[in-house]
Design brief:
InterPro entries: Dimeric_a/b-barrel, NIPSNAP, NipSnap_domain. Residues 4-102 form the NIPSNAP domain. The protein is an alpha+beta fold. Helix content is 40%, strand content 32%. The protein has a single domain (6-95), classed as 2-Layer Sandwich (Alpha-Beta Plaits), CATH 3.30.70. It has helices spanning 15-34, 60-71, 74-83; strands spanning 2-10, 36-42, 50-57, 87-95. A 4-stranded antiparallel beta sheet has the order 2-3-1-4. The N and C termini lie close together (6 Å).
Length: 104
Amino acid sequence: MIVEQRIYSLKAGKVREFLAVYEAEGLVVQAEALGRLLGYFTTETGELNQVVQLWGFDSFEERLRRRAALSAQQAWHAFLQKAGPLVLAQKSELLLPAPFSPIR
């Protein structure tokens, strides 16, 4: 299994608005396409105004296939039109579990 960690840095004061739009319009589309949402978080300390998503995939190839399917959906593009202006930057990292990790 691999875990994709996506961190979105949002405009100051826009976390609630982003979460509301995501929950109402983005979550269902993304969850159907990507499959395994492991967690969704906001930052409380350190760098603020961020949301962090963790998605699980069986392989890098599965991730590529699922992300391509997401990108092909009109509903996803409609969501991005609303949420995109709230985002300043995004970062994506692929994480591999250690042999003793509870998430394997």
